[in-house]
């Protein structure tokens, strides 16, 4: 039977109470959700905390969830009712109007000798140990965040394309400073969240204590192309930022040139007025 350990072993305790997770099921559905910019569980007695870093909660009936502070939740074999209760109990900041999600199948084969594997989008594991499930959640959490930013940046490209085309064809910007600054700020914010909050390229902290799972995580990382997708997003963010900065520089140069012409015009007018006054006198 699948189980999670509720707490670390204590020398004074004769045994550790297991927490049933999948109730003997060998086929489990996984749903990874990105709910918003931040997520943290609010006090709820129905869901039991069984691990930290990342946080793991056991559902009252079956299944469990891994919650990440950057707004992602990976749900393992939970019933729809438990999913709704869990999501309602999370304090989500900057919630998304339409949460990003990914669906994955998990197969638990206790007779497998080769260890964890991935085939046709299905994750096969020899057992449902807590660290193994946390590693799966780490990869899926990052994948769903990347999917969100891929969609968001694609929309930004659609908005910035007319700007780049206008620069190419007419040498003008045709955009207000505020809109250009929004493009730059949006690109910087997306990069900061991916690098600072999600740490897409960083090795999960839990692998330092479970070195035997490094190969498994590397396999998941390759399967979901986490590094390749992160690199592609960074290149796109850099292009958006450079395009917006170039347009902003041109706009500022034109404004500075216009101000200089205003100053020259005022000087010429003042000289003409002075000459006129001299002639009149």
Structure write-up:
- This protein has 281 residues and is α+β, with helices and mostly antiparallel strands.
- The longest helix has 55 residues, at 226-280.
- The protein has helices at 80-88, 130-170, 177-198, 214-223, 226-280; strands at residues 3-5, 18-20, 27-41, 48-51, 55-58, 64-67, 72-76, 90-108, 117-119, 122-125.
- The protein has 5 helices and 10 strands.
- The strands form 2 sheets. An 8-stranded mixed β-sheet has the order 4-5-6-7-3-8-10-9. A two-stranded antiparallel ribbon has the order 1-2.
- It folds into 2 domains: 17-128, no CATH class; 145-280, no CATH class.
- The radius of gyration is 28 Å and the shape is elongated.
Properties at a glance:
alpha+beta; two-stranded antiparallel ribbon; 10 strands; elongated; disordered N terminus
Q: Any chance you could write out the topology, listing elements then pairs?
A:
Layout: E1 3-5, E2 18-20, E3 27-41, E4 48-51, E5 55-58, E6 64-67, E7 72-76, H1 80-88, E8 90-108, E9 117-119, E10 122-125, H2 130-170, H3 177-198, H4 214-223, H5 226-280
Parallel strand pairs: 8-10
Antiparallel strand pairs: 1-2, 3-7, 3-8, 4-5, 5-6, 6-7, 9-10
């Amino acid at each position: 039977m699948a189980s999670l350990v509720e707490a670390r072993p204590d020398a004074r305790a004769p045994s550790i109470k297991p927490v049933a997770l999948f109730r003997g099921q060998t086929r489990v559905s996984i749903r990874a959700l990105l709910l918003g910019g931040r997520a943290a569980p609010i006090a709820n007695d129905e869901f039991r905390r069984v691990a930290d870093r990342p946080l793991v909660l056991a559902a009252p009936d079956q299944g469990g969830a891994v919650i990440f502070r950057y707004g992602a939740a990976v749900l393992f074999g939970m019933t729809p009712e438990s999913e709704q209760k869990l999501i309602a109990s999370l304090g989500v900041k900057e919630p998304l109007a339409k949460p990003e999600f990914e669906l994955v199948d998990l197969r638990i084969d206790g007779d497998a000798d080769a260890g964890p594997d991935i085939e046709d989008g299905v994750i096969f594991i020899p057992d449902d140990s807590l660290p193994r499930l946390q590693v799966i959640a780490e990869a899926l959490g990052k994948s769903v965040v990347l999917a969100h930013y891929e969609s968001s940046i694609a929309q930004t490209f659609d908005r910035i394309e007319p700007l780049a085309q206008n620069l190419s064809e007419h040498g003008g910007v045709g955009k207000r400073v505020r809109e250009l600054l929004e493009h730059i700020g949006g690109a910087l914010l997306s990069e900061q969240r991916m690098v600072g909050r999600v740490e897409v390229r960083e090795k999960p902290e839990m692998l330092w204590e479970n070195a035997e799972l490094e190969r498994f995580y590397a396999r998941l990382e390759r399967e979901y192309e986490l590094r390749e997708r992160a690199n592609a997003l960074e290149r796109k963010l850099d292009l958006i930022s450079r395009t917006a900065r170039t347009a902003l520089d041109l706009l500022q140069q034109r404004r500075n040139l216009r101000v200089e012409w205003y100053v020259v015009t005022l000087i010429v007018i003042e000289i003409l007025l002075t000459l006129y006054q001299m002639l009149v006198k």
